[in-house]
């Protein structure tokens, strides 16, 4: 075990915002890395709520055994209104002081990182962020923890829907998660051979969708799946289904909203390994004196991105991939 | 190979009504059993629509290879309005005559069997039914083909929802399939440790649900899943969520409708084996001169039930199981 | 909550012998049922080893939360040599006395039940058995806890093997678990369309296997899977592969032993519900004064079978099912 | 549809060498991309064997429907001895001429690409390679088609093994695929919290393994999984188990060889999307006049690598990842 000569003797770890598969793997990684470097690790339950209300528990390497493959977050997560207030953050600072916590690892998304930044500015608590969200929309990392699992869960579900769509010559509108980002929609659409994929990043029109239906009919395609991202600008799946039925009364149109199943489940290997790397990196980064940065992987290399940049910019959809989707739906 | 000395030289097989996982395994079994007994087998596509419109194709043992593990139905299914008319059934009878089909195997549910019965009365075409539906509500068999798969799909999904429910201390209302029957709801509720299970067979009241919430809070249960069958009399999941939120504004209440994912997917072993047995049984039954009956398994024994009985009666929910659910949710 | 007027105030629960998926669901059910009936419940870790060495821990309803869907057994299991000695059982009796345990629920197989019977005779500790084993070979219940999961795990794996077998026109010998019983082999063989299925209950000859290969070749079947139960009398998979390669040097022959993956994994719905019912039944049986019996389900009815009978007799393979396998492999 | 003004009017596609999940998705992509660009597409069955023996079939966009999610390769694969001879390749050239095939897309690994290169040199048939192998050891692409699926299959299986290992306090040696490369071993080891991971790229010693066991015991770890790559230099899993048992007779040591299950199964999203991109890229590359190159993705960018380079060099294991494994196993 290497000697820890840095000022960091105690690290607190918390999960914040919407939960994502692999958060437990990230927690485990932070705890074990702390142990490896001779740092005490505290788990803070319920995100920033726990910081405010002193829900703090010491975690040793054995307390995170058999955790790597579990969905959800054992530390629980929450969206804290109180932490948005100066008073809330002052209470949180007292908890940090009381436990002699030298730095935080914050596992979450944009909103959670913003909270951490304000807290750091006001109370001087260093932190490193680990991107945990299924939406994959955080700049500074190719993938976020939870995205690969959510994507595979969506595709497993759409595969099942396709079985019944094909058996009945039906048109299915399937809504997948992604409020501002079409990553899950685009990739799940390609992976399931969707007729059309509607994402927030693209200006889609209902006429384009109708053209797609007509092309499909010409080619003898008898059933179709249309993937729609949650944040799609054209309207929700129910409206799209209604308009389609009005235009093509002979179609047997159905709607499925995949919803929260996309947030749970045992993480895929990619998410477990990513979470493991970033958890270790966050601890090593804090030891090295870094703060206000997010740990991410870009082109298989570890990269620390200033939090401000990670929050401001966004991962962009690959235009080539949209073209591939177009070619393959023919 | 045994000699076939019966009058049955050619059998037609079709899938009708809502599709269910295992229908392909049943088709394969009928085709292979026909081959074994020296009978020609024809697949009729699109259910009774195919009978009306002469969508008939001969199937040999190799044409059903690699089919046993696929969801949906390769013969496709449909609900035929035309077959409900005398004229429609006359067209269907011509198709039967044209192809010298001596008997039919009808894979489907109540409605499909009713159609077969009328057709048999009017045109003298013998048939045997194979119960294929995810609802498990057909009398004369302990389980229907597709039920076990749908149930496991529902539980896989609810397990994922529980991950996120637990991480956020949420209350989730999850709607599962079952228009008139609570089999999927009751069993998936027990299997996922649901707080409460609302099924059409029971008179549930919203007050009982509220009592369950309060008991749970007393015991320190911080998240809850309530399973609601599609056909539940008390109202849909959205209404239940609304009333709950009105009563307990502090609850974080979410809704998920599992929907059509429950109809697809590779069948479980139980469904594959059941479909395999019943497909063989249907062919052997027709050879033995039976008609107007449904093949089913009761207590691991093959049973032929008169179709009229299968349609009139319904499988009943096991009262003991409701008590078990009650004991275990404490 | 009903009043408990029986003499049973404290129940100990343990898992013993080979572990099986669903044991955790059974433990949870025993703990919750005890709670429901006002009985204190103790978990005994490591099977009879824990009884000897006083590994006893009190379990409340919250201590078994989120346990129903986990593979393995949280109480751990072991095969105890010491419990086979009089001295060992005397130590165990002291532990029982020390904790005022009035009765035991023993989750396990034949060997575990034999141990319980001897212990009961010598030291007067009542017990009820819950059949937990993947082999499904225990008399007095249609299915044992863990069997359905193991079977589905085996079939998932064989489906994958079939993908590669078909891609390469290969012959695969796949060994599945079942030392004395062919339930997993026969059912997984039917469910995956195996060419041949070799089980301990049948006298198979290598010549019959060769005939099956030749029939398959005549019919143009280009790849084949042969399922072999662990306890098959004809020899292991490696020998069978060797003989086959000697007879047909042109075959591309491969071997896979599925092994311990069949013992783990999240239990299927059938196993969760079965475990839930039997756990409640065991507690209710002890309250009603029963002992030395095993709780089981036969034809969907709860049945208590004298342990001696459960040990002596064995579930028998369904001959009809062997015929179905034969018909469908054509 | 864009106009195809290149000389490429007809493309042949084949899968060669060991099969991998996602090959079907790649075939589909080649066929659909050809259709999109107005090129006729021929499938060649059984790899180079099919080229020699004229197993050629025209494929339209509908002939690859419902193929993207299937394991294995519908075109079948083979290792051809005859294609290694000049005579074999001459026969193959005749087939190419006979069907007016202008170029080939070869989906496979190192060996398959070598074959394509020689064939191109001798007979002037342009080709582009698509890396399809579970081993992930091909230079010029971050990931090969099939690797992500194989890795997830391995981890699913090891998760199950861990359930039973933990229940019994056992030591399991698990062999995963990877003849020359430790990618599956290293990543599955991290993802399952393995005690130790033995890969061909590292000089492991049995003493290091024993030290790992002793550290684990000191820390109270009661069960352990050791992942061993197929090509590990120290010896096979059976030998390692034997040596371990000799050193620690009190250990309950078990062995599992995961084997061919790692080659099958429905591909993950990553593999489906990768295969889709590379299939389109291969067709577009041929249209653009490229040949003797492999299409790959590096840092989410499409890259064509000269085949010679792809064959000579190898993807290297990430040293940082080995350190992460080391930190987390503590």
TrEMBL record, chains A, B, C, D:
Catalytic reaction equation(s): beta-D-fructose 6-phosphate + ATP = beta-D-fructose 1,6-bisphosphate + ADP + H(+)
GO cellular component: a single term: 6-phosphofructokinase complex
Binding site for Mg(2+): 110
Pathway: Carbohydrate degradation; glycolysis; D-glyceraldehyde 3-phosphate and glycerone phosphate from D-glucose: step 3/4
EC number, as in UniProt: 2.7.1.11
UniProt signal peptide: none
Annotated substrate binding sites: 133-135, 170, 177-179, 230, 254, 260-263
Keyword Transferase part of the UniProt annotation: yes
Entry's localization field: Cytoplasm
GO biological process: canonical glycolysis; fructose 1,6-bisphosphate metabolic process; fructose 6-phosphate metabolic process
Reported cofactor(s): Mg(2+)
PROSITE patterns assigned: PHOSPHOFRUCTOKINASE
Regulation: Allosterically activated by ADP and other diphosphonucleosides, and allosterically inhibited by phosphoenolpyruvate.
GO MF entry, a single one: AMP binding
Phosphofructokinase domain residues: 10-285
Subunit-level organization: Homotetramer.
Family indicated by similarity: Belongs to the phosphofructokinase type A (PFKA) family. ATP-dependent PFK group I subfamily. Prokaryotic clade 'B1' sub-subfamily.
Protein name as it appears in the record: ATP-dependent 6-phosphofructokinase
Organism annotation: Apibacter adventoris
């Amino acid at each position: 075990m290497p000697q820890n000569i840095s000022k960091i003797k105690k690290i607190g770890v918390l999960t914040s915002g919407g939960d994502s598969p692999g958060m437990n793997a990230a927690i485990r990684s932070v705890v074990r890395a702390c142990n490896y470097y001779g740092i005490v690790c505290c788990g803070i339950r319920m995100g920033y709520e726990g910081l405010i209300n002193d829900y703090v528990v010491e975690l040793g390497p054995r307390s995170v055994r058999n955790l790597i493959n579990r969905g959800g977050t054992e530390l629980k997560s929450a969206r804290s209104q109180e932490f948005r207030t100066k008073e809330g953050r002052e209470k949180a600072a007292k908890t940090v002081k009381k436990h002699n916590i030298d730095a935080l690892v914050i596992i979450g998304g944009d909103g959670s990182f913003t909270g951490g930044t304000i807290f750091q500015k006001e109370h001087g608590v260093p932190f490193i962020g680990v991107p945990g969200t299924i939406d994959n929309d955080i700049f500074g990392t190719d993938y976020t923890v939870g995205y690969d699992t959510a994507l595979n869960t969506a595709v497993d579900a759409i595969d099942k829907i396709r079985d019944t769509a094909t058996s009945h010559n039906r048109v299915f509108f399937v809504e997948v998660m992604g409020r501002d980002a079409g990553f899950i929609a685009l990739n799940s659409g390609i992976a399931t051979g969707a007729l059309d994929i509607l994402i927030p990043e693209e200006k889609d029109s209902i006429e384009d969708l109708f053209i797609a239906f007509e092309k499909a009919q010409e080619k003898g395609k008898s059933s179709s799946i249309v993937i729609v991202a949650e944040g799609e600008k054209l309207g929700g799946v129910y409206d799209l289904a209604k308009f389609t039925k009005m235009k093509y009364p002979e179609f047997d149109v159905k709607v499925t909203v995949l919803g929260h199943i996309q947030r749970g489940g045992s993480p895929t290997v990619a998410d477990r390994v990513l979470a493991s790397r970033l958890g270790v990196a966050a601890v090593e980064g804090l030891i090295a004196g870094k703060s206000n940065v997010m740990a991410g992987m870009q082109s298989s290399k570890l990269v620390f991105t200033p939090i401000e940049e990670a929050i401001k910019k966004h991962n962009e959809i690959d235009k080539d991939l949209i073209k591939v989707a177009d070619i393959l739906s023919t």
